[in-house]
Structures are given as C-alpha cells and as structure tokens.
Write a structure and sequence with these properties.
5-stranded antiparallel beta sheet, disordered C terminus, single chain, 6-stranded mixed beta sheet, 19 helices, alpha/beta, 24% strand
C-alpha cells in the first residue's frame, strides 16, 4: 500500500515582483501551495494567489507557468534557492490566468500543475525543489514581458507512486519563537502613576487578529498542552515587553504628538494576551532575552558592565509574570554573535550556553563547541533554517517592522524545504538543528499554524524529532571535556550595525547618575521601599535606548536615550533646595542663613550643598545631610562676612559624588556689618594712628618750649621767635610729610 502524507496547505506570500520596465508595477502574492510537502499519491500541486496592478496602464493577457530547478543536494544549493538564485531546468507551458487587469485592480488566480506526465514538473525523485512562478503580461504602453514572479521550495518526500524514503534517524530540532516587539514604554507605572507609552500600536498587536495575539493563539491551537511538538518549542521572551503589557493591563496613558497624554485603549487586550501567553508557555522551554533585547555587544564596547548585568535581571520578571522558570543560563545574543570580552563576562554572570551563528566562531562547525577553555558552550543555530525564515535571505537586516508583503508565509514554506533537506541529505551528525527566525519576524497566526502543521507532519513521517534545546552536559551534547574549543569571532558587518559610540557615551553618562542615586539613597522606614525599586526603572529606560531594535537606526537610539534622560532628570529634581523669597539681610558678621532641602522621593537621600567661593563671604561646609523620604530638612548655614555690601550666592544640591539633584538656587544677601576681625583690625589701626600722632605733637611741643626758652635767654630777637612759632605751628597743623621724615 502506498503511503500518503498530505501536510495541510501552507499559504505563502512573496513581495518579489517585476515588470517590463523593471519597476514594482505589479504585485504577485502566492498565498497557498497545496500540498506544502509532497509524498505518495499526490498527482499535482495547486498554487493560489492574487495579482495587483500598481501601474498606470491596463495589463492584458496575463498568463503564468511554473519552472522547476534541480533538487538541492548541498547547503550552498539550498542557500542559492533561498536567495532566488537557483537555475530552472524544466518548465510547464504558460496557462492563462486573467484577461485584463485595470490600474489599481486586484484579481485572484489558481494554477494547477501536474507533478509527472505531459506538461508537468517532471518530478521523479525525492528532495527539495526550487520552484519559480513566472507571470507574463502585456501593458497597453509596452510589449509582453514578465510582470511578476515568486520563488519558494517544494519539499518532496517521495514522487507520485513511490513510498517515502524515511531516514534512519529523525533529525532533532528545536524551534525558537521570539516574543519580541519594539520598546514602547516611556515612563513605567507606579502605585501613584500610570505607565506612559510612546504610542498605542501595541494594543492592536495584542488584540485578536493582531500579530502577537495570533502568534500565541496559534501555539495554543497547534501545539497545545500534551502535544509532542511542544517539546521542540522554546519561547524567547523580552522582559520589557512583558513589563509593558502588564502595565497596560492596569490602565495606561499614550503620548500625543503635542506632548500631552490620552487614555490607552488596550487594557483588556493586554490582560487577555497575558493569559494566552501563560497558557502557551506552561511547562515549555522559556528563555529570557536581555531586557528590551538590549545589544550586549554594544554595551560591552561602551564599557558598561553594570548595564550588562542589569539586562540579565529580566529573568525574574519573566518568572513572575508567566509563572514559569526560564532557563537563566542560556543566552540568545542578537545575530547569534559574540566577541571574547563579552563571552568571558557572561561566564561570570552565570551564562553557560549561548546560541550562536556558526559563522561567528573560529571553527564554523554546526556541532557544539566551547568558547575558549573555560567559557560557555556554543550551541549553533542552523544557518539554513534561519535564513529560510529571514525574508531578507541573508542580506542586510532591517530594523523596521515587516509588512504582510515581506514573505512571512513564503519563509515558512522555505523552512520546511530546508528542514526536509536537513533531515535527509544534510544531516549534522545528530546535532540539534535550531530554527531561529529574525527577532521581530512579523509572523502571522496563519503562517505559524502552517509551520507547526508542517513540522507535525514531518515528525509523524519520521523525518524530524522535536527535541528542544540541549542542556549543558545532556545526552544530546558531548561531554564538556570532549567539546572542541573555538574562539568567538565577531563579524565586522555586525559591528558596523551597532549603536554609534556618541549615543552610547550619552547613555553611559546617564547610567553613572542612576548608579550614583542608588548609592546615595537608602530604604526609609516610613515608606519601606527598597532603593532598587526607584533606580531599576531608570536603568530599564536606558536599556531601551540600547535595544537591538535600533541597530542601523541611530536616530531612534538617540531618541530613547533622550527619553530616559528626561525621566531621570525628573526624578533627580525631586530632591531640591526650597525657593528663597526676596533678599536676605545679614545683621551680624556671622549671621546664619536658613535653608530647607525637600525630598519628594520615597527613599532617604544623602546630599551635600555645593557653594562656589564668593569674595568677602565664607560658608561652613555642613557635610553630608540625610533627607528623609517624602520629607524635608531645615538647617542654618553658618557664614562669615568680611565686608559690607551685596552678595550673590548660587547653592546647588548634589549627591556626595557630585551628581546634580534639583535646580541650583540663587541667593541675594545684603550685609551692613563687618566681621570681628575686620572691626578689631580697624580699631587697632586707629589707636596706633592716635598714638603716633600724639607722639609727634608732643615732640614738637617740647621742641617749641626749648626754642622759646632759648629766646628768653637772649639768644635771638623776639621777632625771630615769633616767626619760628608761626612756622612751628604750621608744621604741626599741616602736612606730616616733613615730620614723617624726622627720626623718631
């Protein structure tokens, strides 16, 4: 009896179009291939889809044919097929599809092609065959030419009339399902405040029919509890996405373009989605991605080890929200690439297994290895399967969200073709093939259901075995001592995609302030809030600025660092010096200045006052001042005034290390007094002046009496004495210049 395996029809979409003028004048979408995997008595393949005329001309006489290439026999041949470079060697005749298609018009089509016999694909053996759907037409303003095409793999387990050639051992597979979005949360919620999101796009994704909802629902439907297929699934979850959705479920606000906020619409959808995700992940493998899927390589290159460590704390949040313990020792880095410094750091942080692209290791082997002698185990991601799920087919990765035209379903068809090749001709010696789609693959629910149905069919036929990710030291892995040693090699093209250094420098500056705030604060008995509850959301905001979503998009990275900076500044400003009303008058040379520091934060904060040097005024350093949570401290700043007049003094509140808290305040002082030293010095100077003046007067009086006595004894005429008397009087009462020259 001939075995028959018809895996359910898989819809596929291709954005690959062409026209006579070489533009995107038409769009060809192949939406279903039935059967998606051929085996046994299947006699034909049915290809359905639609054509849209995007040109300004009517297209007439639209017809199509299917062209087949050789079955892939090697990894390079599969890669060529995935990238649309496989040559075709057999073709069917053109079949009419649509008579006329006006500008802007869309029309469905169905194309049925025999597998064997006359005018067929002539498939007489098993394998994964590249197919090309070639559509021709004649625009009113041009000649007949190809107006659209779609390429994909058709896996054939056995040609018509032959039984499937079951492999000796099924290939073990593991499928990563990324539960990832883009950073959305600008401000995390608190008991007193609701979270603020940058937009409300996530609400649509969480609603039935949205990307994230349908992705999770498809797993519930296609690989529910008890399904053997569930053993091969592993959810890679971004903790920031969970935190955002959880905040949405409690009610949230959305930022308007004018800077204001409005009510978010997705609270109910967020709660429904969380419940679905808990159901889908129950008892399954779960990995926690770095928080906000932050780029660990960029953080390492920026010298931010504390942020690297903090990004891995998200595993606790994943456990809390999903009630499932994630595999904390396994890391899936962006692009599957690391360098040696980050690899060694991760080892010290408890990471013992990393999922890597084989091309980013010195061996390039699809088998597990160890990154340097005592480093983590490198578990390779299957490059063929990953490229099949990548709509860019190994080209430059884009950071923008995919649209439905980006070939998500075509990627599913290609993945099944690549997996069929891997299970037959491309076996990897028992090593698990890890299927890893792009992080933000816009996989529709229908696409994922098709992928799961195809995997289930291949498993039931004995081609694959859902095995999950190998445990370190498990039976699917060689013993630790026997693993070959490899070096991580970070590709230059990956480094070129990192967030630019100037943006990371801004991030590092703000990260220092967050750490300084943590070191300067402590739990207050009145609020009983741990200081980490204050600083962790600030750190998370910085990690959103370092998200891998912003590779090749420095403007977005810069924006999110600025958002985090504004939030941090708002927190720091809640510890401040109270305003001064008017001018302060100092009535004594050492009059104190009354001051008040207010702390609106829920933790005690230790601060210092920073007062620049001011001529004529000295202030005494008060040292470290502890200001209680949601309270204030009153104190008197002792001063010493050295002159009368006005003073302008700027007073700043900082942490002990110098991080600025609230806005600096300017104080206007008025002093009418001198300090005691100045007064004493002036008094002494005055007394000395009186003594010296008296001494001079006394000396001159004595000299006068001596001259008068001499005159009375007949030593000179009286008139001379009178003249001398006048001169002497002038000397005493006038300038002291001559007397100052006299010897004392």
């Amino acid at each position: 009896m001939v075995a028959v395996l018809l895996i359910s029809g898989i819809p596929i979409t291709s954005a690959r179009t062409a026209s006579a003028q070489g533009s995107d004048a038409t769009q060809l979408e192949v939406t279903k291939v039935t059967p998606s995997v051929v085996s046994g008595s299947t006699g034909e393949v049915s290809i359905s889809g639609r054509i849209t005329n995007r040109s300004g001309s009517t297209i007439n006489g639209i017809e199509a044919r299917v062209q087949r290439g050789y079955p892939t026999q090697s990894d390079p041949a599969v890669q060529d097929a995935l990238r649309g470079n496989a040559a075709t060697v057999d073709e069917t005749s053109f079949r009419p599809l649509i008579d006329t298609l006006a500008p802007g018009q869309q029309a469905p089509f169905e194309l049925k092609v025999p597998l064997t016999g006359p005018d067929s694909l002539e498939i007489a053996e098993s394998g994964s065959f590249p197919l090309l759907v070639n559509v021709n037409g004649q625009p009113d303003d041009g000649g007949r030419a190809r107006i659209g095409e779609s390429r994909f793999l058709l896996p054939v387990l056995a040609p018509p009339g032959a039984p499937p050639a079951k492999p000796a051992e099924p290939a073990p597979i593991a499928v990563l399902l990324p539960i990832v979005d883009y950073p959305r949360m600008q401000q995390e919620g608190t008991p007193d405040q609701r979270a603020v999101l940058a937009d409300d796009a996530l609400a649509a994704s969480l609603t039935p029919g949205g990307r994230l909802y349908d992705l999770v629902q498809s797993v519930v439907d296609g690989a529910g509890a008890g399904s053997p297929l569930g053993n091969g699934l592993c959810f890679a979850v971004d903790p920031d996405l969970l935190a955002t959705v959880q905040a949405m479920s409690r009610g949230y606000l959305v930022r308007r373009p004018d800077g204001g906020t409005q009510e978010g619409t997705g609270a109910a959808s967020a709660q429904l989605w969380l419940n679905k995700l808990r159901e889908a992940t129950a008892g399954r493998c779960v990995l926690a991605l770095p928080y906000a899927d932050s780029d660990l390589l960029a953080l390492e290159h920026a010298g931010l080890p504390d942020l690297i460590k903090g990004s891995l704390d998200g595993a606790s949040l994943v456990k809390q929200v999903l009630a499932t313990e994630p595999r904390r020792s396994v890391l899936w880095p962006i692009e599957g690439a690391l360098d040696e410094p980050i690899s060694r750091r991760l080892t010290g942080l408890g990471i013992d297994t990393v999922l890597v692209d084989p091309a980013s290791t010195s061996t390039g082997s699809p088998a597990p290895s160890r990154l340097f002698e005592d480093g983590p185990t490198a578990l390779p991601i299957d490059p063929l399967l990953s490229e099949a799920l990548d709509p860019n087919h190994g080209g430059p990765r884009e950071t923008t969200a995919m649209s439905p035209e980006d070939g998500g379903a075509a990627s599913v068809q290609n993945a099944l073709g690549a997996l069929t090749y891997r299970a037959t001709l491309g076996a990897q010696g028992g090593a698990t093939s890890v299927l890893a789609p792009p992080r933000r693959w816009n996989l529709s629910g229908e696409d994922l259901r098709s992928l799961l149905d195809g995997l289930r069919g291949l498993a039931e036929a004995g081609y694959v075995r859902p095995a999950g990710l190998p445990e370190r030291g498990g039976e699917a892995e060689q013993s630790d001592a026997a693993l070959p040693v490899a070096r991580p090699e970070y590709p230059a093209e990956n480094a070129a995609e990192e967030i630019p250094q100037p943006v990371l420098d801004q991030l590092a500056e703000q990260n220092y302030k967050v750490g300084d705030l943590y070191r300067s604060s402590e739990k207050d008995p009145a609020t009983d809030l741990d200081r980490a509850a204050l600083t962790t959301p600030l750190r998370n905001g910085l990690l959103r600025g370092a998200s891998s979503a912003w590779r090749n998009d420095p403007a977005a990275a810069r924006h999110w660092v600025r958002v985090a900076t504004d939030t941090l500044d708002g927190v720091l400003s809640q510890v401040r010096l109270d305003e001064f009303a008017g001018k302060i008058t100092l009535t004594a040379s050492n009059a104190p200045i009354p001051m008040t520091v207010t702390n609106d934060l829920p933790v005690t904060v230790s601060v210092r006052l920073r007062i620049p040097a001011t001529a004529g005024l000295e202030t005494r350093d008060l040292g470290v001042i502890r200001v209680p949570a949601q309270g204030r401290r009153h104190f008197r700043l002792e001063t010493e005034v050295h002159r009368a007049g006005q003073f302008t003094v700027d007073v700043a509140v900082t942490t002990e290390a110098g991080t600025k808290l609230g806005t600096a305040k300017r104080i206007q002082l008025q002093s009418y007094t001198y300090d005691p030293f100045t007064v004493g010095l002036t008094a002494i100077a005055s007394a000395l002046l009186v003594i010296l003046s008296g001494r001079r007067i006394l000396r001159r009086l004595r000299a006068r009496r001596a001259r008068l006595a001499a005159a009375g004894a007949g030593q000179g005429p009286a008139s001379e004495g009178g003249e001398a008397s006048v001169a002497e009087s002038t000397a005493v009462s006038g300038s002291t210049t001559e007397s100052d020259r006299s010897p004392s």
